[in-house]
Here is the input.
Amino acid sequence: MQIPDDIRRCVVFLYASGTTGRRPVGTGFIVSMRLSDVSPRHAYLVTAKHIVEGVHRTGKKLCARVNGRGPMEMALWAETQREQERREKAGEETDILRVFEDLRVKPPESVLTLANAIAEHEPSIVEGAQFVDLGAVGNWIFHEDPNVDAAVLDWQPSWTLDLWPFPLKHAANPALIAREGIGLGEDAFAVGLFSRHVGEPRNIPIVRIGNIVAFPEERVATGTGLQEAYLVELRSIGGLSGSPVFTYLGGLRREFPIGGEVTMTTRAGAIYLLGIVHGHWNLASEEQVDAVRDPLDGGERVNMGIAIVVPIARLLEILDYPEVRAARETAQNSGAAPA
Here is the structure.
């Protein structure tokens, strides 16, 4: 399978920041949702709960290392938003990433002029990675089931940050899984931090590829309690915690309702958000969470290649809590700028 490069742009790297400096602890990613087809997108930062609680428990701050948009990226993004709004008002079906890439290939003169103006008047704007303080642990929202390893932050990042929220209309909830016939053996991939090659001066998220090997038929015993989880075979090492996991539909699908025939499908290449990486099994012991460890604690863990993935349905439950919906409605009704 070939994975679109832009899907890496929903990912941020999470760091613990203290008096002795910063160190990477895992991955986070941005998602978006709408109240309606015409309302602005509202963004959330998502990661594993144990990362958020673990960093704050040690008295350190949690921050995100995020790529910035340079002048050309900012000009292209501004033009993309205008073009997307024009197409939506005209009733056209559009993909904002496709609009952006089309403009990047052949930017109009207005984009070049705006990019030059930004570079001249805002010389501090750079494309390199920058750190953003994510605030107190109380800003995060957790699932009412304390064993669900998911954390959500209502976060509308600045448009100067190079982030593309993944739309939750493409989340693999139970209804979508049933409709698409998603099952065992499906291609899956995670996008996240590789601690040995973080990237300088920009983040370089890597893609780790595998397959779904078990559905959440019964809870899995983990270091943070019993987890409802997918098991996904992924080639990975430390730093995967909090990463998004996607499933990728191939061109050949078995259509069980019509007698088990193998058919071609127009859904080939469809990508759906499956869940959030909790951790993996350690070669020498029980399950371990997959955050990068301090070298004083023995460095990175080596795992058996089976990732424990919290279903995206648990995230959708958090976002459907009355207080979360109310905050989203208030922000969108007030005209707050979307990510």
Q: What stands out?
A: The CA atoms of residues 72 and 115 lie 5 Å apart. The longest strand covers residues 21-33. DSSP finds seven helices and 19 strands in the chain.
